[in-house]
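Consider the following assembly input.
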Amino acid sequence: MSQPVQLPRWIDIGLLPLWNLCIALAVAGLVVLAIGQSPAQALGVMLQGSLGSARGLGYTLYYTTTFIFTGLAVAVAFHGGLFNIGGEGQAVLGGVAVALLALWLSPFLPAGLMLPLLVLAAAVGGMLWAAVPAYLQAWRGSHIVITTIMFNFLASSLNVYLLVNWLRPKGSMAVESAAFADSARMPALHTLAQSFGLELPSSPLNLSLVLALLACVGVWWFLWKSRAGYALRAVGSAPRAAHYAGIKPRLQVLIAMGLSGALAGMVAVNEISGVQGKLTLDFVAGAGFTGIAVSLMGRNHPVGIVLAALLFGVLYQGGVEVAFEIPGFSREMVVTVQGLIVLFAGAMATVSAPLFARLYKALARKEG
Amino acid sequence: MDEVLIGSLLGSTLRVTTPLLLCALAGLLSERSGVIDLGLEGKMLFAAFAAAATASVTQSTGLGLMAAIAVACALSMVQGFACVTHRGDQVVTGVALNMVAAGLTVVLGIAWFAQGGQTPPVPAEVRLTGLSTAYAEPQAGQWFASVLGHGLLSHNALVYLAFFLVVAVWFFLERTKPGLRLRAVGENPAMVDAAGVSVPGLRYSALLMNGVLCGLAGSYLTLAQNANFSPNMTAGRGYIALAAMIFGKWKPVPTLLACLLFGFLDAVAIRLQGVVIPGLGEVPVQLIQALPYILTVILLAGFIGQALAPKALGRPYVKER
């Protein structure tokens, strides 16, 4: 039992994660039963609400967009051998950067110039916020997990400070910035469709989804097709060997975290520029942590991450519908399910591996 | 007026320090045995919920405390199963526990009590109250009653227990055989194994003690500090406790000092809201609230001495055959 089990690839990256997901969902089903609700009804409402209508699908894909960004962020850091738990704070800083730039320039600049600048601002904001823990890890030897957690709290304090003392319009009670001009708003899909004569129900889904998919392709190309990505993965899997091969591990830590932070910062493009149109207090709302679940489920690969992000999009949108439709049900069930998925597909991912190994062996013997 | 200020500041510092201290000691026991505990927040939250739910339904302080400890220990055992028995990632396990706790407490709260995730208030006679009621409020003009009475002697039993536990944990780790073994398993598990002592056994017992302390921390929140449970009421205290433990360099007495410092900052932050300090202007409350995190980052970066973690921290032990 103490030997790691050798499993064929299709079991290892296909069957096992699905099995773990099923266990997590089964436990969630037990929780639903325990509070006296029907899991089948909840599942029905969830699927209907998230995939059953164009409007629901729009919301689902809007959540998916955010989760692709945070999932990719965790995955890139992971390939560099780092655990970035600070996606939450990096996204907040992305939002702060977007808001400052938008409040400053959006009255003057056209959308064609403003929007690329905002994407850049979001990425740079997140990147800088991730670069500090990366520097501290690489050059000062502090633990990246702890520093990024601390930086989550620091980011949220900074956001509160900026909103309360500087960005809140005079006389306003709500803790949020003034609204941006239209040029700083990422176009929503239903308005775009309208200009082509197509009628779509309104939803928060916006062009950021395209940006997220491009980011997936970019991350895939970078990690597996570029020289720089190779160096990063080399440090992630064997830092000493990589160092011996002439790759500077410290620099790679900085690159991995910088990219990771930039991806997390892009959440702000979807949430702040795309949906809110102003800086708000809690716009990340745990998406940084959901990214951990997404990346674990998606096995740190862009394709897996898109699928896992879609799964969590369905869970979040469906969860809202379930909480709305079924009395006594709360949205937090989604957070519970998310936690169970991280527990069973992440922390206990290999618990069932020996079982599968035995099954596979028995099967192979029968055929051979 | 000074005596009232000092008395009430001292009193509130001790009150907010207590849950931090219990939680930080819990983290210390687990981490000294080599298991990273990011799940402090979740365990404390779930324990707070269990204490409030049980105490308000059964009208019994003892049952509330027991439920909190049982729930926190159960979570610790799940943690042990994942990262001691199955060598899962310890950080991921902690994150998972926190998510499950944040979600499940609200789901159960709404299903059982239908009050938006809150539990019904715990009645005053069930709650933990100060041992001596004579000094409930600081009194102007009476130094003795305000500072010594209100500041130090007006608290409930859990406050004194928390401070006593610092000594107990120190004694256990530094002066007893099981304590020595627990420290050894966090530094060099192979050696402990070679000596014929079970590595998983030691780590599980450390996690069990960790659960008991997290249970106490959680019950303090709902049986003493607040009258009921509200969603996400720990609000990052588990992480501050973790920071305090690191700030205390994984040692009981320095951890106590770090907890007192962070507790003092918390108590002061509320009082400094909108106060203008001559020469500095108005100090933003957010800055004072962020100070524990800033200080921990600076310490970890090695700018204030060295923070040396247990050597085997975060590494699952694989027995060589």
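The CA atoms of residues 10 and 177 of chain B lie 37 Å apart. Ask yourself how this observation constrains the way the partners meet.
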